Amino acid sequence: MVLLGKIALGMFGTVAAAAGLICSEGFIEVNVVTKQPNEQHHIVVIAPAMLVPIAAHFIPPDKLDHGARELKQYMPTVRAALEGLDEADDVTLVDVTEPGEHVLVKKEGGSVTVNVVDKDETVYVSTPIRAIESTVEQIANASDHAKNTDSVDFQ
């Protein structure tokens, strides 16, 4: 009986550690409200941010190769911008108001938030900066990965 308790405790500890690791970069939140005359839809998706760079890892390198090559030349600038944004205080990056429309892009805490409101829908997206960095690095490194896998000869 004690052995079963130790096994269960070990399994629970492993699951808790895995959940903590997956949630360590924060969460991506997407909140969409459509305002149709006859009906209204409200969709909310909250997912661990670490899933995005993990998912990017499974995209075939040949599908990312062109974008990765284009992105590679701008990576020093992208890294510097994301690092500066992460270290900066909370700031409004874009605030555009027109009749019936409002777009607001902000850096809040460790996340970039985008809030778009118009007469038909409201869209709110919040993404941790660290997840953006990880995903951009994953995409930029896809061209290197494609070169390494193309030269391997399987016999």
Question: What is this structure's SSE topology?
Answer:
Blueprint: H1 2-22, E1 27-35, E2 40-48, H2 51-57, H3 61-72, H4 75-87, E3 91-98, E4 101-108, E5 111-118, E6 121-128, H5 129-140, H6 142-150
Antiparallel strand pairs: 1-2, 1-6, 3-4, 4-5, 5-6
Description:
With about 160 residues, the protein is an alpha+beta fold. The protein has one domain. The chain is built from 6 helices and 6 strands. Strands 2-1-6-5-4-3 form a 6-stranded antiparallel β-sheet. α2 (about 50-55) runs parallel beside α5 and α4 (about 75-85) runs antiparallel to α5 (about 130-140). The model is unreliable at about 150-155 (pLDDT under 50).
List keywords for this structure.
disordered C terminus; alpha+beta; about 160 residues
Strand content: 25-35%
Mean of pLDDT: 85
Instruction: Tell me the total number of β-strands.
Output: 6
| Helix coverage percent | 40-55%
Uncertain residue ranges: 151-155
Largest sheet report: 6 strands, antiparallel
Helical run tally = 6
Q: Helix/strand-derived class?
A: alpha+beta
| Outline | extended
Walk across the major sheet and give the strand order.
2-1-6-5-4-3
Radius of gyration, in Å, reads 21 Å
Order of helices and strands: HEEHHHEEEEHH
Give the end-to-end Cα distance, rounded to a whole number of Å: 51 Å
Structural domain count: 1
